[in-house]
Amino acid sequence: KNTGKCGIxxxxxxxxxxxxxEINSYIYKFIRTYVPEEDILLNEPMHKHTxxxxxGEAMCFLRIGGAGQLKKLIPYFKKVEIPYFILGNxxxxxxxxxxxRGVVLQIGNKMxxxxxxxxxxxxxAGATLAAAxxxxxxxxxxxxxxxxxxxxTIGGGVVMNAGAYGxxxxxxxxLVTVMDGQGExxxxxxxxxxxxxxxxxxxxxxxxxxxxxxxxxPGEQEEIRGKMDELAGKRRExxxxxxPSAGSTFKRPEGYFAGxxxxxxxxxxxxxxxxxxxxxxxxxxxNTGDATAADIACVxxxxxxxxxxxxxxxxxxxxxxxxxx
Length: 325
Description:
With 325 residues, the chain is α+β, with helices and mostly antiparallel strands.
């Protein structure tokens, strides 16, 4: 099959700069002024940073430690027209085999502090949803159990209003602290966030999430742990957790279930190279071990075409495409 370019997008909070860019000595010197040398990785393989475990090299990969760095770096990258991409845990991302000619700004555990304030938890954007759910359990706070098995970060979770098993981030995220493209800090309440199905006001704006206030309720630790264990069991039973993937590949079409449509279209087990529609859950495209990004992109493209042809339903991906394929 022709795996070609199966659809490219730069994703959230990315700047669109020149096609041919490089980190020259002047740009590197500027970055080094604000980022420790050990947190600057040139030509970094992105398969190390995505749950699909595929992807070529990022021209420059920066481990971000605080808002102060972002305040300096983002306006500078805009000024010199270098594309940039904000990365969390890489759980909803497909990076092309030819890599990304830009700068990846990773907001991870260096910005993942968690602290409780009564029934509220303030979570740094880089904290994983699993870590935040565990922290809530330890503090005897209920409401975040649904997020315990979602492999993303708090920041990514509010951007896309992540959810599972009847729970969504919009139910608990009461205040979101963001930085805009000029480096200004803003606080967005729940109404301002405009949460929808797998979307929010942030998704198409140049905002970077810094911290999220999660409003929870007191609960019994044993009951909270039991709910988390119950949901973990459901995931193991129904999802292909034994293979690298980006979780649910497609959004749920209104009035339908993506996995059911894909199965009824005869695409269960469909394969290109090392990429396959999971036979356990057709809503997942998985890396069976040796997939390329082009393989995965082509499976996604073929599934969308087959479902459109058979049911006149257009599937939208939850996965963000980044870089050159």
